[in-house]
Amino acid sequence: PRHAARGADGAVRLAGADVTALAEQYGTPLFVVDEADFRARCAEHAAAYGDPSLVHYAAKAFLTAETARWVADEGLGLDVCTEGELRTALRGGFPPERITVHGNNKSRHELAAALDAGVGAVVVDSYVEIARLDELARARDVRADVMVRVTVGVEAHTHEFIATAHEDQKFGFSLASGDATEAVRRVLKSPGLHLVGLHSHIGSQIFDADGFELAARRVIGLLAELRDEHGEAVSDALGTVDLGGGMGIAYTTADAPRSPAWMAAELRAIVERESARVGLAPPRIAVEPGRAIAGPGTVTVYEVGTVKDVELGGGARRRYVSVDGGMSDNIRTALYDAHYDCRVVSRTAGTAPPVRSRVVGKHCESGDVVVRDCWLPADLAPGDLVAVAATGAYCYAMASAYNKVPRPAVVAVADGTSRPLLRRETLDDLARLEVG
Ligand code: LLP
């Protein structure tokens, strides 16, 4: 987070709030969200893309009614992919016309809820959905604005991207097979639907524009074909290309993400060049960053419970530091082999050199690792507080109550004060779900 500072006594403050005091007040594990950081990243993306409503924050990264209000205040749009995310946004008073609805298996009920709420657009993902949405829209005597999700055959993660002719995955309509062209034909033939654009999403934690470049080239190539085949009927769809999310962030000092301004300038140059190539006026660019907005400004604070040095043979040892959460509040290390860093936040380190440590959770399985490798004070002891940074995206959102460990609380800090966004789950909450 941008507003983190360590005092002379080693105690860390976040946006002016003392982390140790927060841990005492709310307990641990605790997610602490730097509200100003989150808002600043919204504002930076809005400025970079010229029009805030072209930036749709991806709710899946982290959403509460309150954070939906922050996103709304900053003027951004919102991408939701379930009724749960939609309802949370609406509860926060999010303007429905700025909401885009995603998902490969939207139920009739979810589509009806989206139409009844008056969402901005639905991104259609299958022939079944096109027919389903058309029927629901006609029953309501409305025309639903839709984008067609195109599978462009580009998969990008971090520094690499793979371009394949055909993608073996569940999302979207394949461009290579002709399904994307057919999907557009069906949308244009559906009286309940109005085509407003093409959408592609190529992956996550992307640092360069290369993957986006190939995706944009293919999507714009398709736009040109649609213009040639359908003429005026697709004019609204030529106005905007949605290139999805995936903009990378720094989880550790090894990551060097680009600024929103850099990425936006690259994307604009690519879209201008590719449009010129096929004789189209350059469309507006919409994007859907989740991680890049919610990720960097949040830390997870844990209390150290045990410190154990394990003999590995040949004189090698590994230090295991057990904390009071784990894979239930951060599954990303176990699931994606994600890298994080961990620091002590309740005091200064002793003078001894730090020890390479593995931070593990309290769950009953050995894959329950939070941070695979980090340097922690040699004198780290039970009761010390440690924090893992950049946990704002896909950590709470993917949290579970595995081993009947209740989900942590989430608090927002701003100007030295804190307020809860989510209270800690209790054992009673868990017991209440049981029947009989
Ligand atoms: N738009 C669409 C259509 C998406 O599917 C996603 C992410 C995003 C936008 C936002 O991507 P972002 O900017 O946050 O990378 N749980 C994984 C990430 C899965 C993302 C799925 N879709 C993780 O923890 O890394």
From TrEMBL:
<feature type="modified residue" description="N6-(pyridoxal phosphate)lysine">
    <location>
        <position position="60"/>
    </location>
</feature>
<comment type="similarity">
    <text>Belongs to the Orn/Lys/Arg decarboxylase class-II family. LysA subfamily.</text>
</comment>
<feature type="binding site">
    <location>
        <position position="365"/>
    </location>
    <ligand>
        <name>substrate</name>
    </ligand>
</feature>
<comment type="subunit">
    <text>Homodimer.</text>
</comment>
<protein>
    <recommendedName>
        <fullName>Diaminopimelate decarboxylase</fullName>
        <ecNumber>4.1.1.20</ecNumber>
    </recommendedName>
</protein>
<dbReference type="InterPro" id="IPR022644">
    <property type="entry name" value="De-COase2_N"/>
</dbReference>
<feature type="binding site">
    <location>
        <position position="336"/>
    </location>
    <ligand>
        <name>substrate</name>
    </ligand>
</feature>
<dbReference type="GO" id="GO:0030170">
    <property type="term" value="F:pyridoxal phosphate binding"/>
</dbReference>
<dbReference type="Pfam" id="PF02784">
    <property type="entry name" value="Orn_Arg_deC_N"/>
</dbReference>
<feature type="domain" description="Orn/DAP/Arg decarboxylase 2 N-terminal">
    <location>
        <begin position="36"/>
        <end position="294"/>
    </location>
</feature>
<feature type="domain" description="Orn/DAP/Arg decarboxylase 2 C-terminal">
    <location>
        <begin position="298"/>
        <end position="392"/>
    </location>
</feature>
<feature type="binding site">
    <location>
        <position position="394"/>
    </location>
    <ligand>
        <name>substrate</name>
    </ligand>
</feature>
<feature type="binding site">
    <location>
        <position position="291"/>
    </location>
    <ligand>
        <name>substrate</name>
    </ligand>
</feature>
<keyword id="KW-0456">Lyase</keyword>
<dbReference type="InterPro" id="IPR000183">
    <property type="entry name" value="Orn/DAP/Arg_de-COase"/>
</dbReference>
<feature type="binding site">
    <location>
        <position position="246"/>
    </location>
    <ligand>
        <name>pyridoxal 5'-phosphate</name>
    </ligand>
</feature>
<dbReference type="InterPro" id="IPR002986">
    <property type="entry name" value="DAP_deCOOHase_LysA"/>
</dbReference>
<feature type="binding site">
    <location>
        <begin position="288"/>
        <end position="291"/>
    </location>
    <ligand>
        <name>pyridoxal 5'-phosphate</name>
    </ligand>
</feature>
<keyword id="KW-0663">Pyridoxal phosphate</keyword>
<comment type="function">
    <text>Specifically catalyzes the decarboxylation of meso-diaminopimelate (meso-DAP) to L-lysine.</text>
</comment>
<dbReference type="InterPro" id="IPR022657">
    <property type="entry name" value="De-COase2_CS"/>
</dbReference>
<dbReference type="InterPro" id="IPR022643">
    <property type="entry name" value="De-COase2_C"/>
</dbReference>
<comment type="pathway">
    <text>Amino-acid biosynthesis; L-lysine biosynthesis via DAP pathway; L-lysine from DL-2,6-diaminopimelate: step 1/1.</text>
</comment>
<feature type="active site" description="Proton donor">
    <location>
        <position position="364"/>
    </location>
</feature>
<keyword id="KW-0028">Amino-acid biosynthesis</keyword>
<feature type="binding site">
    <location>
        <position position="332"/>
    </location>
    <ligand>
        <name>substrate</name>
    </ligand>
</feature>
<keyword id="KW-0457">Lysine biosynthesis</keyword>
<feature type="binding site">
    <location>
        <position position="394"/>
    </location>
    <ligand>
        <name>pyridoxal 5'-phosphate</name>
    </ligand>
</feature>
<dbReference type="InterPro" id="IPR009006">
    <property type="entry name" value="Ala_racemase/Decarboxylase_C"/>
</dbReference>
<dbReference type="Pfam" id="PF00278">
    <property type="entry name" value="Orn_DAP_Arg_deC"/>
</dbReference>
<dbReference type="GO" id="GO:0009089">
    <property type="term" value="P:lysine biosynthetic process via diaminopimelate"/>
</dbReference>
<dbReference type="InterPro" id="IPR029066">
    <property type="entry name" value="PLP-binding_barrel"/>
</dbReference>
<keyword id="KW-0210">Decarboxylase</keyword>
<dbReference type="GO" id="GO:0008836">
    <property type="term" value="F:diaminopimelate decarboxylase activity"/>
</dbReference>
